[in-house]
Amino acid sequence: MGPKSIRIVIVVIAILIGIIVALVTGILVRSGGGSLTSAALSGGGSFAATVALVLTIAKFLDLVT
Predict the structure, then answer these.
(1) Please, what sign has the CA dihedral across residues 44, 47, 12, 56?
(2) Is 43 or 65 the better-scoring residue by pLDDT?
(3) Crossing angle of helices 36-60/3-31, nearest 10°?
(4) Exposed, middle or buried by CB within 10 Å (0-12, 13-18, 19+), for 25?
(5) Which CA distances in Å does 57 have to 12, 40, 61?
(6) Domains of the chain: which residue ranges?
(7) What end-to-end distance do the CA atoms of the chain give, in Å?
(8) pTM to 2 decimals?
(9) How does residue 52 score in pLDDT terms, banded at 50, 70 and 90?
(10) What is the pLDDT of residues 12-33, one digit of tens each?
């Protein structure tokens, strides 16, 4: 696996972790009495923040060049 393949795998892992966090956030907001719109907005925000955080950590650990 070359550097490009490793970079792609790390990005895919970051996206998958973001999807899991977004689903959990949406479920928690909805079960707490929030509307479907607020659950979707909260899930989207948590997805973006999680992907950014995972990629930042990967860059800090020199996993991504």
Answers:
(1) positive
(2) 43
(3) 150
(4) buried
(5) 14, 26, 6
(6) 14-59
(7) 15
(8) 0.90
(9) very high
(10) 999 999 999 999 999 999 999 9
